[in-house]
Amino acid sequence: MLEPGAVWRNWGRSQTVTPAHTARPTSVDEVVAVIAAARDRGLTVKAVGAGHSFTSIAATDGVQLDVSALDGVYAVDGTRVTLGAGTNLYQLPALLDPLGLALTNMGDIDRQTLAGATSTGTHGTGAVFGGLATQVVGLTLVTADATILTINEETNAELLPAARLGLGALGIVVDLTIQCVPSFALRAVEIPEPLEAVLDDFAARSTGVDHFEFYWFPHTDTALTKSNTRLPVETPPVRQSAVSSWIDDELLSNGVFAVTCGLGRLMPGMVPGINRIADKLVAQRDVTDLSHRIFVADRRVRFRESEYAIPRENVPEALRAIRSLVAEKGWKISFPIEVRVAAADENWLSTAYGRESGYIAVHRYYREDPTEYFEAVEAIMRGFEGRPHWGKMHFQNAESLAAVYPRFDDFRAVRDQLDPDRLFTNDYLRKVLGS
What's CA 170's distance to the chain center, in Å? Predict the structure, then answer.
């Protein structure tokens, strides 16, 4: 079952690796066999999904275990649905709609696998809604001794806060049981507004609707706010015309943006002017549709990203500090900065563990070196006890992360229990969790 390895690159082209072997199991029994074979050969094993993490969390020089064939619905129990770990988020509407169900919340990208998204802390926005891992009520792991381990609210329940968001450090996730909700619609109102006004009123804005976020293009004074309100599923849809939708979602968000990113890389001095033009081209929208059609956007322009969670009340001060930093350094930043919120949760390595959180995400076009920008933004975020998104670029280590995660040592104790010989380790996990 172990095939010769081949060059693998992640979506953002920030990671390239050639594993010794690849494996694409189609069943839990085959996952068990791959792990046993790797262990016998003294090789490490890392699961890989869609490659949408910007860190090296999925990289290995041992066995790269592709979970993509472990997909689809395995079982349904009321509003709880068990799905294969390799199920891509974009597959879920076709799987859940016939059941009259939906995810409680989603981010704006749906290319990730379910296991990859939950294991790295993927989240959407909404002051009373947690990240994707908070919707996990059970999962199955294959552990380092090739044991199939069930973890849910009745069986090994003490492991659930660690395993829901496990960084791939505890074993290979082969399925997850998700607490879904009845299907619902969303009304989305998108409006360009003065940035300072949005920051001044951020506490009320971020809690005043079900799902609030905004984007700010550096070198401008405008925020594009997005306010989503949950509605009954039978609410009649209100959609843009085909032409308007194509202009906003295809021409501007992907086609023109790709061109402007390329121009900005070659002629950075043009970026402020381009961003100000983009500000004026953004149209107001007021649309209603099924939840997944509102949550998700089609983003094809490749980028690299760093994102930090901080206490929600600190978001305005932190964003103002980033704005001042960009101006002071004279950087020309073509990609917008994204601001979102999430409820506190109880998953030990969640960026929102124990506190209501705000998220600030910074991006660079994938052909630009993001290091200086990301390091400087990280320094600001660490001043607010920031926690980096596990799947996005950061420069922290186990010592610094232990200081901002109260249950960090508890997670490492579970890792010692389930993977004492570090079958599932790699350079990234050695850095962020220690040996």
Answer: 19
CA pseudo-torsion sign 408, 414, 417, 418: negative
Q: Where in the chain is the domain with CATH 3.30.465.10?
A: 68-182
Q: What CA–CA distance (Å, rounded) separates 159 from 147?
A: 15
pLDDT(251) > 50: no
pLDDT at 323 over 80: yes
Rounded (to 5) percent helix, strand, coil in the chain: 35, 25, 40
* pLDDT-derived band at 252, boundaries 50, 70, 90: low
Q: If DSSP states are collapsed to H, E and C, what string results for 14-36?
A: CCEECCCEEECCCCHHHHHHHHH
In degrees, to the nearest 5, what angle opens at C-alpha 433 toward C-alphas 373 and 367?
30
**Residue type at position 159:** L
List where CATH 3.40.462.10 sits in the chain.
Answer: 184-388
The DSSP result for 313-345, as a single string, is GGHHHHHHHHHHHHHHHT----SPEEEEEE--B
Mean pLDDT for the chain overall: 93
Q: What's the angle, vertex CA 330, arms to CA 327 and CA 334, rounded to 5?
A: 85
Q: How far apart are the C-alpha atoms of 129 and 123, rounded to whole Å?
A: 9
The tokens describing 295, both together, are 């949550």
pLDDT in tens, 11-39: 999 999 999 999 999 999 999 999 999 99
Say which residues have a Cβ less than 8 Å from residue 266's Cβ, sequence separation at least 6.
none
Beta-carbon-side half-sphere exposure of residue 335 (alpha carbons within 13 Å): 24
Using alpha carbons only, how large is the chain's radius of gyration in Å?
Answer: 21
CATH number corresponding to 184-388 = 3.40.462.10
What CATH number belongs to 68-182?
3.30.465.10
What is the Cα–Cα distance from 180 to 173, expressed in whole angstroms?
Answer: 19
**What was the pLDDT predicted at 297?**
85
